């Protein structure tokens, strides 16, 4: 079996786009297409359905990707561990964060990490909610501290580092604004505003459904747009309690939920990018998590 064929299949299964796959592999689109056709001939069945508008995995392709990915990640991780053992822990680690509280947590963790590993440099940058996984997959980040859940086959979720209470943001003139707290049932009849690009499984876990099962959702392009829509009474927003601290507005009221679990935040990294530095940083994060609310 040609390793390049398997790598082309794996990347195309992630991207579902021949152009982006070719860019990641530094090959021509024609070469990627040739590798996929050779692999399909070797297996004896199509692995992708191709049209002029979209590329999708066939059932056999989905099964092959699911079967191969753990082995691929294991091989890459083994090579990374061997390289780390030879070189020791050192170099630059790029860590992303998705919220102000996560950013503060990363700074605390990075300070402790540098104390234990003085040969390591930690670079911190923001992760946009509309593209939570893109920088990780592109290799621009080594780790990200973001909201859970994360259910992506090529990404690994570490332990939760801290939790933040779930609240409901409403306009100052909203029918619920005078309450001290709200329940999930108060979402009946309300439109929930969220950030565009978040996966459906995340929305299902993050935004609770009232007993009638209705949950109209409207997407905003950014956090500031979301707050503006809430202030204009276009809908409400389920968010973490840190919003009241970092994004206070006289036109918005934040109400705690009485019946929802807190939001968990944890570290995420590429399965193929697990290095000694990544493991050491994660260990430091767990050890210092008690200093973060």
TrEMBL record:
GO cellular component, one term: protein-DNA complex
Molecular function terms from GO: DNA binding; DNA-binding transcription factor activity
Keyword Ion transport annotated: no
PROSITE patterns linked: HTH_LYSR
Residue ranges occupied by any HTH lysR-type domain in the UniProt entry: 1-58
InterPro entries: LysR_HTH_N, LysR_subst-bd, WH-like_DNA-bd_sf, WH_DNA-bd_sf
Gene3D superfamilies the UniProt entry points to: Periplasmic binding protein-like II, Winged helix-like DNA-binding domain superfamily/Winged helix DNA-binding domain
Name the record gives this protein: LysR family transcriptional regulator
